[in-house]
């Protein structure tokens, strides 16, 4: 019926229900909340956190944001603002491209790299320890962080968890 098919300009009610069902299935509330607790600092999460969650759960960053809206963890305007932010879109694209690069496998698992970057950015480890963990020179740290999506600009806090 036309109500089920729609005109292609916006999602129909059945499509909306299908999206909600899929997000509940792919992003179970308990698992998502646990993951957020793990990455949130001072009950805040960042653009990079949203993208990392999306990569970990195998869904889009938009799916993560809308699931957070459905769980009443962030507001609809905040999700829309993040999705409209060109810095967020660029960071998302760049971090996802790294998943599919043809340069060969990384020396370290992406989860290890992510955690090391997160610990450095949050002051839990020193720059020297970070360089040692990732087997890079200390002078390369800032470029390395930017290359893997953990530059200062992408690490700004965006919302309360």
Question: What are the key terms here?
Answer:
161 residues; mainly alpha; 2 domains; 4% strand; elongated
Task: Explain what the structure shows.
The protein has ten helices and two strands; from the N terminus they run αααβαααααααβ. The protein has 161 residues and is mostly helical. It has two domains: 1-85, no CATH class; 105-155, no CATH class. The radius of gyration is 18 Å and the shape is elongated. The N and C termini lie far apart (41 Å). The mean pLDDT is 80.
| CA-based shape | elongated
- What would you report as the Rg, rounded to the nearest angstrom? 18 Å
Distance between the termini: 41 Å
The percent range for helix content is 55-70%
Can you list the strand order of the major beta sheet?
1-2
Mean pLDDT: 80
Percent in strands = under 5%
Secondary structure category: mainly alpha
Total strand segments: 2
Low-confidence stretches: none
The SSE string, one letter per element, is HHHEHHHHHHHE
| Overall tally of structural domains | 2
The largest pleated sheet is described as: 2 strands, antiparallel
Number of helices: 10
């Amino acid at each position: 019926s036309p109500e089920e098919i729609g005109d292609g300009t916006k999602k129909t009610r059945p499509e909306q229900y299908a999206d909600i069902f899929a997000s509940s299935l792919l992003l179970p509330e308990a698992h998502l909340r646990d993951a957020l607790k793990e990455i949130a600092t001072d009950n805040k999460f960042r653009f990079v956190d949203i993208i990392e969650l999306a990569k970990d759960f195998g869904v889009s960053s938009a799916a993560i944001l809308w699931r957070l809206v459905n769980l009443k963890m962030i507001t609809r305007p905040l999700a829309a603002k993040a999705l409209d932010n060109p810095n967020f879109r660029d960071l998302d694209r760049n971090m996802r491209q790294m998943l599919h690069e043809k340069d060969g496998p990384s020396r370290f698992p992406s989860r290890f790299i992510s955690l090391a970057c997160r610990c450095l950015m949050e002051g839990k480890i020193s720059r020297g320890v970070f360089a040692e963990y990732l087997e890079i020179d200390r002078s390369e740290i800032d470029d390395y962080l930017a290359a893997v999506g953990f530059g200062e600009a992408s690490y700004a806090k965006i919302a309360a968890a």
